[in-house]
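Final report, Chapter 2: Outcomes

The project's central promise was a pipeline that accepts a single protein chain and returns its three-dimensional structure in a standardized token representation, suitable for archiving and comparison. That pipeline is now operational. To close this chapter, we reproduce one record exactly as it appears in the project archive, with the input sequence first and the structure output second.
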Amino acid sequence: MQKTNRRKFIGASLATGTGLTLTTTFNSAWAGVKGSNTDVRVGVIGCGGKGSAHARHLKSLKSKGVRVTGVCDPDTTALARQKKTFADSKTKINTYTDIRKFLEDKEVDAVIIATPNHWHTLAAIWALQAGKHVYVEKPVSHNIWEGGQLVKAAEKYSNLIVQHGMQRRSANGWNEIMEWIKDEPLGKMLYSHGFCYKPRKSIGKVQGPQKPPETLNYELWSGPRGKLPIMRSRFHYDWHWQWPYGNGDIGNQGPHQLDVARWVLGQDSLPTSVISVGCRLGYDDDGTSANTQIAYFDYKPCPLIFEVRGLPRKGLDWNNGMDNYKGIRIGNVIHFEGGHIAENRAFDKDGKTIKKFGDVSGRGHLENYIKSIQTGNQLYTSKVHHGHWSAGLAHMANTSYRIGSTSTPEVVQEVIGDNKSFRESFDRLGQHLDSNGIDFAKDKVSLGANLIMDPETEEFTGKAQAAKANKIEKGIYKAPYTVPKKV
């Protein structure tokens, strides 16, 4: 992202405040909604589990001026499901396997993008170039560079709405919290903490390349990555744990909580450094991302820590459930001198609840996208910059992990030094692995590279690992499915 754009955005943040769900008016080329009867005509790109859920949700909004007019997926089985979903609808649903043909459809005003991660940014940029409003699921990007390109595209096509799928931006509870903490009722903030303790079993191990589903156009699915050998038994979904397509759980579930954690800190940029510690232990499978991970982001004056656990509480027995931290498995904890906030409750130093806030899940986020289109007012806190920076945190952590090296607990502790909050997280990680019968002194964890980031250029700096890290964050693209250098 260009320096001037980031400074302009930060200036706007200071002018309007970061704790409220605000709107900013854009210069629209049309004073209402395109389409007959002023309906917003929406198309869904990617019709797996999340895309199908979005399609059903949009169908329920018919009375609010929403019509689903098109769906796109390279797997005809997924398209058949959508035809069945809308079989009772009076509106004709056009189906496409090729996104390029779909984006030519003049019966589509706005799109929902719920593809695999490696398609998110390219699909969003192409949609903007085709004149469509965009809602893109998290993470908005597969690497930092392309996320910056999406921000540039959103700024160029400023007459179009671009919103990311981080529902907590629309949550009344989180907006209440952001206002409440301004007066420091719990004292100074110490650090911001995010968690993803989500069960992730082994995806298995194949003996050689697998065939794609017969109903799938594999070239169109692969898109930017090219037709790589398929090294997983379950084609759909398990791509989340393989680097060419997914970003692990820190990039899957993580952006939701990373976004809140960064929002709490009031940080409108990437941090100046990151270090990540992690492993994929408990099973040997075709996944390449970590199933256990800690990422430390050195924001000033308060850092951000994120934890991932995919293994159960103990004994590698999934019936034992998952760990929690202060009652939270998937969510946020904010630490202060005089207590903490865990999701929608504030606690004093003795652990007594002193305040409860509203809903923090963000129900109504998709409706806010539709309302933004109908009124011509972009929901301020959902601007794509936030989606980019919060996805970028996950990418930074993964890059640190990927270019790290196996290490012993003693070496990791030496690197952590007297960093109390980081050490506490690492000690609990060791206890977690031990409770699952994993000797991580023997099996080893990966001590990630301590990477230095220039928040202005959004590139890593320094002689040691910067070149490797920046190469990962630029991505590799297969023509003609290439994220444009000039949007």
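Archive annotation: Residues 1-37 have pLDDT under 50 and may be disordered.
This record, like all others produced under the grant, will remain available to the consortium after the project formally closes.
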